[in-house]
Every structure is written in C-alpha cells, then in structure tokens.
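Forum > Structural Biology > Help requests

Title: Can anyone predict the 3D structure of Glutamine synthetase?

Hi all, first post here. I have the sequence for Glutamine synthetase but no way to get a structure on my laptop. I'd be grateful if someone could post the structure tokens.
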Amino acid sequence: MSAEYTFDELKQDVAEGRIDTVLACQVDMQGRLMGKRFHAEYFVESGFRETHCCNYVQATDMEMNTVSGYESTSWAAGYGDYTMKPDLGTLRRIPWLEGTALVLCDVEDHATHSEVAHSPRALLKKQIGRLEAHGFRAMMATELEFFLFNQSFESAEEAGYRGLKRSSAYNEDYHIFQTTKEEDVMRAIRNGLQGAGIPIENSKGEADAGQEELNVRYADALAMADRHAIIKNACKEIAWQKGKAVTFMAKWNYDAAGNSSHVHQSLWSADGTKPLFFDPDGPYGMSKLMEHYVAGLLAHSAEITYFLAPYINSYKRFMAGTFAPTKAIWSRDNRTAGFRLCGEKTKGIRIECRIGGADLNPYLAFAAQLAAGLDGIEKQMTLEAPYVGDAYGAGSDIREIPKTLRAAAAAMDSSDFLRSAFGDSVINHYRRAAEWEQEEYDRRVTDWEIARGFERA
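Reply #1:
Sure, ran it for you. Structure tokens for Glutamine synthetase below:
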C-alpha cells in the first residue's frame, strides 16, 4: 500500500464503501491521540474543513482532570472551544481497524484561528520554521521500546497491575527464537503500520524479558513525530485486539529494564540532498555545524530534560548499568553516554540522544532538542572533547542529567533560552503541568511505603 493517501483517494474509498469512519485526532500534552470518529461521508463533505473540541484537552493530566492554574483555560474562563484543523497531508488508511482512515489535526484558537502555541504540533512546527529560515531541514528518527504482556489491558487493571506475565521468561535482546513466539503481535504491528504509510525498518527483542523495540525510517521532524504518535496508539490497539497488553512506561518495574525512546537527529539542506552534519575532513566526520549543534544540546541538556522525561516515573529509569544514561555528555559510539555519535565518517553521521524514555511526547522532545541545537549554531558554541570510557563511573564533576522531575522542571522554568525559543506562555503552561504531576505524586501513598512501613514504622 502506498505511503501517500490523498483526499481524492479517501473520497473514492468512501463512495465505494471501503471506508466508513475517519478518525480526526489531535495530539495532547501526553502525546496521545484525542479526537472524534467521523462518519466518512460527512467528513469528505464537510468535516475535512474543521471540527471543534473543548480547550481543556490541551491542559489536562493523564487522568483527564481539569487541572487548575493554567493561564490558557479554566473554569473561570468557561472552558471554551478550540478548532481542530485537519492536516490532509497526514491522511492515511488504518489497516488494523475495519473501514477506517485517520487524519491528524492542528489545534487553533476558536476566534482567531491562530495555532495554539502550547499544543505539541504547533510547538514543533515553530522550531522547524526557525531552522528553515537558516536553510536547514531537520531529519529525525525514534527507537521505541515497550513491554509486551500475555494479559489483556482489562485483566491487568483488574489485577491491580500485579502478577503480570511478560511475553518472555528471559532477556530476549536480538533473540530470534523468542521473538518468533511473539510474531502474532509483532508481525501485525509491523504490517499494520506499513499499511498505514509508516515505513517500518524492523522490530527486535530488547534487553529484558518481554521487551520489544520498533524502528522506523528516518524522516522530516514533523513527519517523524506524527509517525511516533500513531505508532504508540497502533501498538496498544493491535495488542488489545490480540488479547495482550503493552506498556511504554519509562520504568515499569524496579527489577526490569527501562523503556527508552532514543532520538537520532541531523540537519540537511533544505532540499534534503546534502547532509550538513558531514565533513569528511572534520573530526570523526563532523562538520563545524554539527559541532555547534551538539554543543547546544549539551549546554542546554538540563533545561530540556523535562521535555524528554515528563513524569515522576521517567526519572526512575536513569540508573547506572542499565543502558539508560546518567550523564549529559557525548561520546563516540558509546551507549553509556547521554549523547552518542553514530555513523562516524559517513553521510549518515548523526547524534543520538539517549536521555528520553518511551513516555515522552515526540513533538515536545524534538522541539526542545532542535531549539537547543539551533542555539548552539547561532552562538557558535564550542564542542567539548568526547568522553572516553564508562560514563556511569564518571565523577560528580561531569555534567549530569537531572535526577528528579522537580530539578528538571526548575531548570526548564528558569531557562531564558527556552523562554526565548518557545515563549513565556508556553513555558508557563508546561511548568504548571510539571507542578501538577509533582503535587499529585507527593500526596499519594505508594505500595513501597506500605510494604516498608506498615509493620515497622
């Protein structure tokens, strides 16, 4: 099936009865698809122009609570509407759902029809626009990890998410025999996404029992973020259809590996023909432009960490010896560092950010990294020497990844660089999201506290 699916093709499919439902989706702060199911005939006649949603959709937590303290929306302001404007360039068939197509929407102010600045897609598009003004085209790819369970989502919830049985009993990293046992689910995911116009490279067993990794082809930053959001939803829907469950939590279990979402990135010429990070005469094949970009990532690593690790749970993944980084340094093909140089001395040279977990919102994560890299370019920041050796054993004088959500949120909130790149209102919006996440956690009683203190306290 073609990766491109036009509006005219949709109209033909609707007329001939192959498509009867269109999902019109925006991406919320948590990176989830939120929207409406249109009858396809109405969508092609009228709904393709716009639809509407309550503006709280871009100001809620994971539980869809109406969180107080946001400047953009509140009970006092009456929780009015946003406009959802379908981007018909994102239109695609959804093979794993019968008679269904999907389109992603931009989120606009109901009165002015200007894009809502704190909506994830608008935030990324703004940074892409800044790069384009310099003649740069951002290319990115994510590697998504998740755990696959033999229980359904419903049975896992009924069990209080205890006693879950993973799809494997042992570490299945690169393991063909074990992943053969999981092919019923993983083949459906690969083929379903390929049929939805998302070019899949491969899936593989990851570094723990029941852990999977999915890789897709490098793409423009916005296209890749769109793919990432759809992929996560697809994995959940397809697993659910098979009576299974998956989790993208950064740290599902203390004894298990974390789920990462490594982000590979490079800049190319505007027409996509010239890799601007490559210089055969530069150190390791790096151009000066790439050196400045990576220097920006390093300089602003603490400030952008919130957009790579947005939850309390995200920070429990950063443990030494687990392939999750603890130091915000760069190194050559070294998986202990926060940033890894890949494709050395080739046109495919790129920097891999290993900080983000699978719980990140791709639009926010991409936007933050592009803004940091662009700041490095504009200020011609000098790149430090690559770290050599085991970064886990590096001393405390080495730049560290923030250890808690509190620390990361404070670094974001006080960042003049981010406020300049994103705008004060956007940073204030996500500061409130971080505050609420922390407030909710601080007042909850956890299983760990009960087990530790019920008798002994």
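The CA atoms of residues 117 and 123 lie 6 Å apart. The chain has two domains: 7-116, 126-450.
Shout if anything looks off.
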